[in-house]
Design a protein that fits this description.
It is a single chain. It is built from 6 helices and 7 strands. The chain is an alpha/beta fold. A 7-stranded mixed sheet has the order 3-2-1-4-5-6-7, with helices on both faces. Strand 2, helix 2 and strand 3 form a beta-alpha-beta unit. The radius of gyration is 17 Å and the shape is globular. The termini are far apart. The structure holds glycinamide ribonucleotide.
């Protein structure tokens, strides 16, 4: 059974969807711990499902690296096979990425590499695009720059505001996330970064 740690900052609706999926008897992964960078509403979902949780408040640490070291110490207690950033609105320090990569994935409410960053839905609306999307990526040191492992387009409809568009994207994110976690549990290479291109054959 794959052990999954989920990190959140907000309402945790995608976390809840994963908890629901993982409560099905044939789902091959379990959420073993939920962590957050601040006290937030999403922690209530963990409590409801009887999953332990922790908060490592970002603002209590002098540096991002210090915060990351404590976050990693908390995660290590649970020996997660996979770490899911599900609305964690903090950039992980490189030490934490290096420690777990490529076993850290992130959900993002846009069709990356379009609209990276913390305001993906707002940015898509401001750009006036007809469609945006949802992505699941492997976390690297950049801001939403890691390899894409699942993504799907979502239409922008006339009259959309940030809330209506985000609420159309989230169910797609949830489906992609649950599918990626299931795939990782059954074939771990599924979330690994794509293999580098083969070297050209040596010339005679
Ligand atoms: C989700 O749309 C997630 O992709 C996004 O925050 C939302 C969290 O919703 N994450 C990012 O924008 C990270 N760059 P939730 O708390 O209701 O699951």
């Amino acid at each position: 059974m794959l052990s999954v740690a989920v990190l959140i900052s907000g309402g945790g609706s995608n976390l809840r969807a994963l908890l629901e999926a993982a409560s099905e008897p044939d789902f091959p992964a379990q959420v073993t711990v939920v962590g957050a960078d601040r006290p937030c509403d999403g922690l209530a979902h963990a409590e409801e499902y009887g999953i332990p949780s922790f908060v490592v408040p970002y603002t209590r640490f002098a540096t991002r690296a210090d915060w990351g070291a404590e976050l990693a110490a908390q995660l290590d207690i649970w020996h997660p096979d996979l770490i899911v950033l599900s609305g964690l609105m903090r950039l992980l320090p490189p030490e934490v990425v290096a420690r777990y990569s490529p076993r850290i994935i992130n959900t993002h409410p846009a069709y990356l590499p379009e609209f990276p960053g913390p305001h993906a839905v707002r940015d898509a609306l401001a750009a006036g695009v007809a469609q945006t999307g949802a992505s699941v990526i492997i976390v690297d040191d950049g801001v939403d720059t890691g390899p894409v492992i699942a993504q799907e387009r979502v239409p922008v409809l006339p009259g959309d505001d940030e809330h209506t568009l985000h609420e159309r994207i989230k169910p797609v994110e949830r489906r992609l996330l649950i599918d990626v976690v299931r795939r990782h549990a059954t074939q771990p290479a599924a979330t690994a970064a794509p293999a580098p291109a083969p070297l050209p054959a040596a010339e005679e």
